[in-house]
Amino acid sequence: MSIPTSLHTDAASALVRLLPTSIVLEPLPFPGSGMPLEEVAQAVTASFVGSESADLALVLDSSTPLADIAGSPSPFLSEADILRPALEAAGSTLGVGVLGDTHIDDASALFSHPSTVVFELHGHDGRAGWFAIRLRDTPHGTANDAAIAGKLSRINNVEMALTVAIGHTRMAVRDVLNLEPGRVVELDRSAGAPADILLNGRLIANGEVVVIDQDYAVRITKILDVAEGLS
């Protein structure tokens, strides 16, 4: 396993601050041998793509209260949903970029990769889990940018998901589990405020919702640059 750098350490520190627990956890570099790979067969995994790209995985020790919280059965939330904010926080330390979908997956290949840095998440009662991060080699330079642009022209006809969001909110898990018909959920913006337009989950523009022939539509009012959309 690789030796941790400041990027790895900052990501691990940001991750433990967003884990849904009152336990104070410290990410400690894990030695290059002795990793129990059978523990990582049900890891929460995601990839971060941006100025620095990385593969991430989080495993919670099955004996900890934290694992009980993350694994609570619900028709609304999975362990990947509950732990996603922590992985987003880890990815945000790498710079501008986007965290892909979170999955429950076998992460043994990532944990055993020679370029991966592994941290043991240590609390006052001992080990609470592991966090793995592998930074990818990100090529730079105008020649590479031109090559990417040429490749993108080949997928001009590929369809992508465009989503319009009129607002967002954050809710505690107990409030999500108590949702029922008739419940009003207050959003984070006022009536008449611009809606967010997202392309495959990434914010690219603002707009206003309109009605055309009894169908909802959105009129684009502002196109965001890459930095705005990813921030």
TrEMBL record:
It is found in: Cell membrane. The keyword Membrane applies. SUPFAM superfamilies: Surface presentation of antigens (SPOA). It is a peripheral membrane protein. Transmembrane segments: none annotated. Keywords: Cell membrane, Cell projection, Chemotaxis, Cilium, Flagellar rotation, Flagellum, Membrane. GO terms for biological process: bacterial-type flagellum-dependent cell motility; chemotaxis. InterPro entries: FliN, FliN-like_C, FliN/MopA/SpaO, FliN_T3SS_HrcQb, SpoA-like_sf. It comes from the Bacteria. NCBIfam families: fliN (TIGR02480). This is Flagellar motor switch protein FliN. The lineage of its organism: Bacteria, Bacillati, Actinomycetota, Actinomycetes, Micrococcales. The gene is fliN.
